[in-house]
Amino acid sequence: MSFSAGVLDYDVAAEADRIAKELRHAVADVCKRRGAVIALSGGIDSSVVAGLCAKALGPKRCHGLLMPERDSSDETLALSQSVADAFGIEATHEDATPMLEGMGCYRRRDEAIRSVVPDFGDGHRFKIVLPGLAEGKTYNVYYIVVETPRGERIKKRLPLKAYLQIVAATNFKQRVRKTMEYYYADKLHYVCTGTPNRLEYDQGFFVKNGDGAADVKPIAHLYKSQVYAMAAHLGVPEGVRTRPPTTDTYSLSQGQDEFYFALPYREMDLCLYGKNHGVPAAEVAPVVKLTEEQVAWVYEDIAKKRATTRYMHLKPQLVGEVSEIEA
Amino acid sequence: MPHMRGQYSHVTGGCAEPPSGRYRMAVANLTVATVESDVTAFIVENFLFGDASEAPARDASFMDTGLIDSTGILEVVAFLEEKYEIEVDDDELVPENFDSVGNIAGYVVKTQEEA
Prior knowledge:
The structure holds 2 protein chains of 2 kinds.
Chain A: H1 12-30, E1 36-39, H2 44-57, E2 62-66, H3 76-87, E3 90-93, H4 97-103, H5 105-114, E4 125-129, E5 143-147, E6 153-157, H6 160-188, E7 191-192, H7 198-203, H8 224-234, H9 238-241, H10 256-259, H11 265-276, H12 281-288, H13 292-308, H14 310-313, H15 323-326
Chain B: H1 32-47, H2 62-65, H3 70-84, H4 95-98, H5 101-114
Helix pairs in contact in B: 1-3, 1-5
């Protein structure tokens, strides 16, 4: 059978039932908690996790958190609330901005940006981007794109120190949110959910001990295209399902494909599936409308990102056996 | 005192900024062997915590061995820019120039010759 986009089709209703059953087992039997906390970003993944938790545990055993901050898109809060409403989940709005200000997130980040773009300040917006497929064989080093108040764009390669400080400061966002999620999880005796899809989980597109921290990750095995299909099945609001994937982390609008993945998610899914199933690049190429060489490059890029983010999945490394606990 | 990027006055006779375009300063008597030795020493100290027994062979691909990833390459670039007072252009940051000790040495020496 030849390779086609149909490889990602699946029995959505049956999978929703199976996930719900596994979720009940994970929450009740393994974690021994009474419900689930879901941070709602207004994106597709957290919305699907909310729908699955509501289906598995009942809406009254779910608590949603809406945690936009200064750089979040204007529509984030309303979209997040619409998801909670759609599934009948109680949700609390916790503005993350004052916490992030307290930790110096914005100040530390802007200081690093100014080491590269000295005039960066009020009215400027920015994002960081990776070289894409068009740039050919190169390293995955980040560039900063700054838009001045007059609309001019400046793009510069980030040197080591600035890059690390911008990432370190920005990671406060995911970690502050997770801290708040665990406050509610502890208070309610609930589990904390993680919302990565398969692309994100496989490729390390998360912050360690930030959005990467969770007691259960119900959709980590689903390709993003499959998450969209699940969203339609569960009744995720239209506004969320039609919103382009965004990091919603930087002040300048940024798609996930320019921040991290080499391709838009549909093509990225198919390349990841092809690589995972040993499909030759030449067979995947016509389906994703790329050349064989480009798909081979994406395969390599997937392997590189897997290798460089391996540490994000690791538990703390022990240097002596504690067999009673590790078993 | 280590060379600080942006402080050009001590090498340009009082000019606070490089005159224009790409700025490079030749370091006298730089050979491939010297750069290989410097880079290997940097890798041993920075990536291997001083364990010289794990030092990479001159032609070993960093990508293949997994010794140096993209962030590691930025560390190597920062080292080279400070050590040899060069600037690595965006289009030069490719595996052909950076994926082994030998490639790096060849790139640095060639860059010096063009300066």
